[in-house]
Structure formats: structure tokens, C-alpha cells
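Dear colleague,

Thank you for sharing your sequence with our group. We've completed the structure prediction you requested, and as agreed, I am returning the results in plain text so they can be pasted directly into your records. Please verify that the sequence below matches your submission; if there's any discrepancy, let me know and we will rerun it promptly.
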Amino acid sequence: MEENQVVSMPRIGDKAPEFKAVTTQGDINFPADFKGSWVILFSHPADFTPVCTSEFMTFANMENQFAEANCKLVGLSVDGLYSHIAWLRTIKEKIEYKGMKNVEVKFPLIEDITMTVAKRYGMIQPGESSTKAVRAVFFIDPNGVIRTIIYYPLSLGRNFDELYRVLIALQTADAFSVATPADWRPGDDVIVPPAGSCGTAKDRMEGKEDMKCYDWFFCTKELKKETVLKTVLKK
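Please find the predicted C-alpha cells below.
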């Protein structure tokens, strides 16, 4: 690839770019192998680095929590398979962090020495590093469509509460045809799509005691936490 060649990065609403890869859990065909599940595809700069270690321990510790929300995890860096294996073994055997120890990473970690996948997903940001992937996060729905993209620089570890919140919010919006306001968490009121006009909003409000309208374009309604969790979690 030429140094100045423009790479079209995937966008929200695009189909996730397809690829085949070798991982710590065997070969994968992405995203076809994950059809029917949500997927968080994420990159990290390098094996045997402290920020990445803290992130992988947290992801592994939360894997069952993500799985209950029908979401699988797939990691990637431009390191080789044997580096991945040695690093993950070191994490399990030697690293104890924030009460986490003997942490076994069971989700696949992609080998991407050629940076083929990283470049296809825009994970290589030359202004940050031309030899390491930034901390990119792609939320991909069960139909293989990219729904959210988050990028972090090399020095900034991810907020895992936020990653989980995003997943649940996306599923809630899909399941109930609503939007979620700032800082939304299950149990908070959700936003009803705008009515389009004041008159329509007034008509819509009649008999809708569960709705609260601040103006014609801004209406919310209650959505109980147990209703959300019963719908999106697989327990």
C-alpha cells in the first residue's frame, strides 16, 4: 500500500468489512462466523504492554456479562500468534490487578502482522503510530452492520462500563424503537421519536399518561429496568 494512499474507513451503518484470520482460538471468518450475535471487535497497540494488559484482564473478567447480552468479543493487534499466546499465558500465570488474578482470556485474539485487518478497519492512525493499532472499538450487530465506533489513543485505557452501557443502549433502542438520552442506563426514561409537528404531538399525548413532553420535539417515557434486562439479557 502506498504511503499516501487514501483508505476508506468503515462507517456507522456500513457492513463490517469481511476478512479471514488466524487467532488464538483458531481460524475465523469474520463477520460470518458471528452471525446472529452482537460482536465487539477491538484493537490494542501491542502485547506485553501495561495498558493493554489491564484492558484484556477486564474484558476477560466481563466476558460472561457481555455473553448474557448476546455479545461476543474479538481482539486484534499487529503482533504474531505466538506473541499473543505467550502474553495471554503470562497474564493468567503472573498478573494480579485490581483483585483480578488467574485470568484466562478465552475469546479470540487476531494475529495481524501484515496490518491487513487493522488498515481495513482504520485502526492504524499514522498521527498516533504507523506501526501500532490505536484502541479502536467496533460494535457490530447480528446482521453484520457496524452500529457504533469508538477510538482511543494509545495512552488511554478504555472505560468498560461505557462499552457495556453502549451495547445495552443499542439493543434497547432496537427492541423498543426508542432513543436513549445522555448518560442513559437501564431504568432511566427513554426518548420517544419526535412527532414531526406540535399538533401531532398533542394528538399523540392524549391518553399517553406515561409520556412526558418538554416540547413537541422532546418527549420521554418510562421504561422499567426489569423490562429492559428481561429483553436484552440471556439468562
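Summary note from our side: Residues 1-6 have pLDDT under 50 and may be disordered.

Kind regards,
the structure core
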